[in-house]
């Protein structure tokens, strides 16, 4: 008695599918990473750095050339 052809052919029919899946996973690893998220994080970090450190530094230079007194509203620029 002969074995049915579907039993013998089943592993041969699955082999191309396995090769195709392996090829697809290899292609997925070759994709370039998306840098949009990294750029967003860097932009937020630079903005926080500017707001917390740089802006107060420049404001302190400006206020040092005035006769600022928080209790009196009149502030004049006195220079050096």
Describe this structure in words.
The protein is mainly alpha-helical. It has a domain at 9-52. It is 68% helix and 0% strand. The longest helix is centred in the middle third of the chain and has 29 residues, at 36-64. The N and C termini lie far apart (110 Å). The mean pLDDT is 75.
| Biggest sheet layout | none
Shape: rod-shaped
Low-confidence stretches: none
Strand content: under 5%
- Give the beta-strand count: 0
Total number of helices: 2
Write down the overall mean pLDDT: 75
- The structure class reads mainly alpha
Question: C-alpha Rg, in Å?
Answer: 35 Å
The span between the termini is 110 Å
**What string gives the helices and strands in order?**
HH
Write the layout of secondary structure elements.
Layout (H helix, E strand, L loop, with lengths): L4 H25 L6 H29 L16
Task: For this entry, give a set of tags.
80 residues, mainly alpha, rod-shaped
């Amino acid at each position: 008695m002969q074995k049915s052809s579907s039993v013998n052919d089943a592993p041969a029919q699955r082999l191309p599918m396995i090769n195709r899946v392996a090829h697809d996973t290899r292609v997925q690893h070759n994709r370039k990473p998306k840098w949009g998220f990294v750029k967003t994080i860097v932009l937020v970090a630079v903005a926080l750095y500017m707001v917390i450190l740089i802006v107060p530094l420049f404001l302190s230079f400006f206020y040092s050339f005035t006769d600022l007194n928080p209790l009196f509203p009149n502030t004049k620029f006195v220079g050096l």
